[in-house]
Write a structure and sequence with these properties.
Bound molecules: 6-phosphogluconic acid
Number of helices: 20
Order of helices and strands: EHEHEHEHEHEHEHHHHHHHHHHHHHHEEE
Number of strands: 10
C-alpha cells in the first residue's frame, strides 16, 4: 500500500463521507476507513470517481496509507465513540501526527483528549464543522482548535475545502489552542438555537396576531431576506413555510408535531454560560422553549387556562414591519450574548480568540451564516476590545431606531397572549444593560438581612453589614 494520502477520514456516515469527498474533489488523496467495511465500499462505488481515494479496511492499513506527519480525521459520534476511536488509533501514530475530531464534541472533552495525546507528541485538533451535509460536501465553516503547529500543516487544506465568504475569504481560522474550536462551535449552535427561536416567534406573531397564512409569511420572510436579515435560516424558513404536505394539502408546518428536539449543544452553551457567569438569556430561552414544547402532558393539562380577551390589531402590513424590527434587534442581542460567552471562555482558558475572525468565518458555510456577520466582523476588527456588540455605534443606532417597534410588538404579543420568550428576554437584557440602577442593590440588602452576606456602598470602598436584628447600625465587615 502506498503512503500517499494527505488526509484520512474514519467514520463514513454522511458528514464523514461528504468531508472525505470534499477533500478528494479538491485534489487531495484521501484514505477512507469505517468500522464496518460496507460503508467504505459504498463510498468507493458511488463516489470513487470523484477523486483519489485509498480505501482501507483495518486501522493499521488506514494509518499506513497516510503520508507523514499523518492527518487523521475522525467523524464519529461525540462522547464515548470518539474516545474508543482515539484509543484504537493513537497507539499506531507517531509524534507529530494529528488527530482531527470534526464531531460536535464538548470542549472539556477536547481539552482532556488534547492533554492526553500531547504527552504522546500527537496533536489533537478539536474542530467545529458547521453546515450540515451540504456544507460538508460543498464547503463548511470550519473552527479548528489545537496547536499552532497543527494548523500550519492542516490549515491550507481546510482553507481549500471550506466555504468562502462573499469577499472570497475562506471560512476557517485557527480559533485557538486545545478546546477553543469546539467551544466556538458550541456557541455557534447556541446562537443557532436563539436565531431559530426568534424566527419562530416572528412566524407565530405574523400568523396569530396579524392573521397571515404560512404561504404569505413565507413571502414576508423572502422579502426580509433581501434586507439586513439576509441569512440562511431566514431563507430556509421561507422554504419550509411555503411547503405544502402532499398527503393532506395542508401547509407542511401544520402537520408537523410542535415538539422541538435537540441534541444538546444549545444546552451546553447555557450550562457553560452559567459556569462562566455570562448572561445568555436569549439562548437560554431558546433552549427552554424547545424543552417546554416537549412537555406534551403539561401543555395538555394547561390548555384550559384563561387567556386574554381578543383585541383589535391595526394594519397587518405595518405590524409585519414592526416584527422585522423586533426580530433584528433581538438577533443583535443574541449575537451580543454569544460573543460575550466566547470572550469569557477565551479569558478563562487563555485562548486569545480573535472575535473578528470568528465573525468572519461564520459569514459562509455555517447554519447561522448571515449578511450582518460581516458587520460584526468589521465592528471587532475596528475595535478588538469592544466591551459588547451593543457598544458598537452602528448596532447601537440600529437598536435605537428599532426599539419603539420592538416594544410595540411585545405589547401586542402580551395583549394577545402569544408567547415571545426570545424577543422579551432580548429586550429585558437590553433594558437591564442600559439601566442606571438595577434592583440588584435591593437583592444585596436582602442577602445582608437574612444571611449577613455584606454589601458594598456606592460612596466608599469596603464591605459592610447592617445589624438588622439590632440597632441597624452599620459595621465594616
Ligand atoms: C451545524 C449544526 C449541526 C446540527 C445541530 C443540530 O452547525 O451544522 O449546528 O451541528 O445540525 O447540532 O442541533 P440540534 O439537533 O440540537 O437542534
Amino acid at each position: 500500500m502506498s503512503t500517499s494520502a494527505q488526509i484520512g477520514v474514519t467514520g463514513l456516515a454522511v458528514m464523514g463521507r461528504n468531508l472525505a469527498r470534499n477533500f478528494a474533489r479538491n485534489g487531495y488523496t484521501v484514505a477512507v476507513h469505517n468500522r464496518t467495511v460496507a460503508r467504505t465500499n459504498a463510498l468507493m462505488e458511488e463516489f470513487g470517481h470523484e477523486g483519489e481515494f485509498v480505501a482501507t479496511e483495518t486501522a493499521k492499513e488506514f494509518v499506513a496509507a497516510l503520508e507523514r506527519p499523518r492527518r487523521l480525521m475522525i467523524m464519529v459520534k461525540a462522547g464515548e465513540p470518539t474516545d474508543t476511536v482515539i484509543q484504537e488509533f493513537a497507539p499506531l501514530l507517531e509524534p507529530g501526527d494529528m488527530i482531527i475530531d470534526g464531531g460536535n464534541a464538548h470542549f472539556a472533552d477536547t481539552r482532556r483528549r488534547e492533554r492526553a495525546l500531547r504527552e504522546q507528541g500527537i496533536h489533537f485538533v478539536g474542530t467545529g464543522v458547521s453546515g450540515g451535509e451540504e456544507g460538508a460536501l460543498h464547503g463548511p465553516s470550519i473552527m479548528p482548535g489545537g496547536s499552532k503547529e497543527s494548523y500550519e500543516s492542516l490549515g491550507p487544506m481546510l482553507e481549500k475545502i471550506s466555504a468562502k465568504a462573499n469577499d472570497g475569504a475562506p471560512c476557517v481560522t485557527h480559533v485557538g489552542p486545545d478546546g477553543a474550536g469546539h467551544f466556538v462551535k458550541m456557541v455557534h449552535n447556541g446562537i443557532e438555537y436563539a436565531d431559530m427561536q426568534l424566527i419562530g416567534e416572528a412566524y407565530q406573531l405574523l400568523r396569530d396576531v396579524a392573521g397571515y397564512s404560512p404561504a404569505q409569511i413565507a413571502d414576508i420572510f423572502r422579502t426580509w431576506n433581501t434586507g439586513r436579515l439576509d441569512s440562511y435560516l431566514i431563507e430556509i424558513t421561507a422554504e419550509v413555510l411555503s411547503h405544502v404536505d402532499a398527503a393532506t394539502g395542508k401547509p407542511f408546518v401544520d402537520i408537523v408535531e410542535d415538539r422541538a428536539e435537540q441534541k444538546g449543544t444549545g444546552r451546553w452553551t447555557v450550562q457553560i454560560a452559567l459556569d462562566l457567569g455570562v448572561p445568555v438569556s436569549g439562548i437560554a430561552e431558546a433552549v427552554f422553549a424547545r424543552s417546554l414544547s416537549g412537555h406534551a402532558d403539561l401543555r395538555a393539562a394547561s390548555r384550559g387556562l384563561a387567556g386574554p380577551k381578543a383585541t383589535q390589531l391595526g394594519e397587518a402590513a405595518a405590524f409585519a414591519d414592526r416584527v422585522e424590527q423586533a426580530l433584528y434587534a433581538s438577533k443583535i442581542v443574541s449575537y451580543t450574548q454569544g460573543f460575550h460567552e466566547i470572550t469569557a471562555g477565551s479569558t478563562e482558558y487563555d485562548w486569545n480568540i480573535d472575535l473578528g475572525a470568528v465573525a468572519s468565518i461564520w459569514r459562509g458555510g455555517c447554519i447561522i451564516r448571515a449578511a450582518f456577520l460581516d458587520r460584526i466582523r468589521a465592528a471587532y476588527d475596528a475595535r478588538p476590545d469592544l466591551p459588547s456588540l451593543l457598544s458598537d455605534e452602528t448596532f447601537a443606532q440600529e437598536i435605537a431606531a428599532a426599539q419603539d417597534d420592538w416594544r410595540e410588538v411585545l405589547v401586542a404579543a402580551t395583549r394577545q397572549g402569544v408567547p415571545t420568550p426570545g424577543f422579551s428576554a432580548a429586550l429585558a437584557y437590553y433594558d437591564a444593560l442600559r439601566a442606571e440602577r438595577l434592583p440588584a442593590a435591593l437583592t444585596q440588602g436582602q442577602r445582608d438581612f437574612f444571611g449577613a452576606h455584606t454589601y458594598r456602598r456606592t460612596d466608599r470602598e469596603g464591605s459592610f453589614h447592617t445589624l438588622w436584628g439590632g440597632d441597624r447600625s452599620e459595621v465594616e465587615a
